[in-house]
Each structure stands twice: as structure tokens, then as C-alpha cells.
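Journal club side-thread
Mid-discussion, someone asked how the predicted structure for our own chain would compare to the paper's figures. Pasting it here so we can look after the session.
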Amino acid sequence: MTDLAPAATRIPSLARGALREAAARIDAATPKDRDRAVDALRALAILGVVLGHWLVTALVAAGSSLHAASPLGDMPWLSPVSWAFQTLAVFFLVGGHVATRGYASSRARGESYGHWLRARLSRLFRPVPAVLTLWTVVAALLLLTGADFVTVHTLVKLALSPMWFLLVFAALTAATPLLTRLHPLWPLVVVLHIDLLRFGLGAPSWLGWVNLAAGWLVPYTLGAAWSRGELDRRRSGWILLTGGTAATAALVAWAGYPASMVGVPGASVSNLNPPTLAAVTFGLAQCGLALLLRERLRRAMRRPVAWAAVALVNLSAMTIFLWHQTALMATTATGHLAGRLPGLHTRPDGLDWVAARLAWLPVFALVLAACWATFRSCERGGGRRRSRVVRTHRTQRRATTAGARHV
């Protein structure tokens, strides 16, 4: 047995060496002028949303049925968790930046708007048919085998909830040529007036859905301003961070807005569904922080292993985003066969549930990894394609958008 010990110790070393070698190849294949901070911000935004959903989405078992709940309902003091993991504003910031520069690059190459838009939307929607097909089959099988309708509705609704984001993002992407010069102040004013009408003057609640477009237009048009070089100075980031933080604190403390930046089942007002003024000002603070972190992220991404991890997330961003709730639902539904498991089917009303949910996170990650391995080819369009990790988006050196190329 002693002869096996040196060989056993060499296995982890060989694995680490292979990982470093693969990371070095990815690093070497990446153009030197690629702004890796853009990719890092996108990866952080996606992973933030995934972890946020896994931490605040609970399915409580009541007999043979499951219903949605949230630890923020019973433990509102956990609201700061939503501040850390509700990162959609950063994704829209990066999306506006990349789309604006990509459209300018497409025009410089003489491509039509239709060609550019088809390319952009195909990347977004390639993973969608697989998700819809799977859940259509699952829902039909559950209902045919006598599953409770409320349970099936809850599972399908939560699993497909990321679709709303995709539709809004696609609409803003399609409108990019009209938005490249739109000042972020204009959609912000729209959100302000819609909230004044809803909460101050008693206007119908459906009016708030105007904010679904206007609210996410704010970070998207900030991304366009970033691409024009208007946010290069650190002062811009500090203004957004401090101003957004102060405005959000004031709205929560004195205007009655919820402290949670995600929806809480049973709450009378949600900051996210549709977006409120507080969600938008909070997004401004997040965008400011993202802009301030750019240089640090660029330095961090010089490490091949860190860059390889970020590149992998970016190559499968939509697959990860669209399947992460399925990973949660699959784990919860399968675990229900064994009974009420702590942190998975129990009421989220105490720190014991929080501790148990944290222990489940690696399981969710493994199931998501299985979904990724199974369906990643859908996002890449099938077959062997050249990785878009070698496409460039140039760093901001007072350059115009004409020569920029983006994912």
C-alpha cells in the first residue's frame, strides 16, 4: 500500500497542472486588447442572480403539494442578502455597453441592422426551446400522474421565471439604434412619475408595468453612455454609487418602499415586479460600483485561471441563467420523495433553515452543472464553433466605437 501513496499524491498535482495548462491556452487565445472587465462584470451579474434565487426561493411542502415562500417574509432582517445578489442592473449596464459598441462595429463593416439583430437575438434565444420543451413534457407528465395542480403551477412558474428577463433584454437590444444617444435621465424621470401616480395619486397598479421597460432602460442607456466614453472618469462611478445609495436609503426609510430588492410572496409591493423607483436607484448604485471596479477586475483577469473561469461562464451565460431555477426545482421535487427535508421543503422562518439551505447550495450547483453539460450545445448552436472568447471589446482609451468588436 505504501507504494501507492506517491502515485496518489501525484494525481491532484497532475490535475492542477492540467487546469493551469488549459487556462494558459485560453489566456493565450484571448486578444491583448480585449476588455476583460466587461466579461467579469457579466459573469458576476449572472452568478449573483443565480445565488440570489437559490438563497431566497423556498418551496414549502404541505402534504403532497409545494408552494412558494421566501425567507425574507419571515426574516425581513435578511433583506441585505437581496442587495448583494440582485445584480440585474449590472447585466443591463454591460448589455447596453456591448450592444451599442457591437452595433457601431456592425455598421462600420457595412452590415445591415437586420443581420446584426438576428445574430444578437440568436445568441440569446438558442437555449430557450430546450427549456420550454422539457418543462412542457414535465408538466404534462406530472398532471397525468395525478400531481397537485398548485404544485405543478408553482414549479413551472419558478422554473420559467427567467424568461421575462430575456424578453425585456431582447426588446431593448432590438431598440439599440434608437437608444444609443438617449440620456439615462429620461427613463429615470418616467419611473419617478409612474411611481408618483401609483403610490401618491392612487393610479391603477397596472400602470406600474410601464416601468418594466423604463426601469431597465436606465442601466441599459448607462451602458451606452459608457461606450461613448462619458463614464470613463472615476468621478462618474462615485456619483452613481453615492447618489444611488442615498436615494435608495431615503426611499426605503421615508417613502415606504420595501427594503428587499426582490419580490417577497405575500408582500403588497414588490421592488422588482414591476421595477420601482427604489429598484432603479439601487441599480444606479450598483452600476456606479461596477464602473469603479473596472480597473481592479482588469488586473484580476490577468491571472489565467481567473480569466478561464470567467470565459467559461460567459460562453454559457444564457444556459446557466435559464437552467438554474430548473436545478433548484429538480432537487426540491426529487428530494420530496424522501419526505420533508430541512432547507428544502421546510418553512424558511429561522436560522436553522438558512444553515440548511447553505448546505444545499453545492447540490444545486452539481445539478446545474449536469444541465449545463447536457444542454450547453444548444447555446452554441450545435456542432463545433469557434469560441467567442477570442472576440474583442476594446478598453476605453478615448476611442470611438467605430473599430470596436464585441461578443
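Post-session note: Residues 396-407 have pLDDT under 50 and may be disordered.
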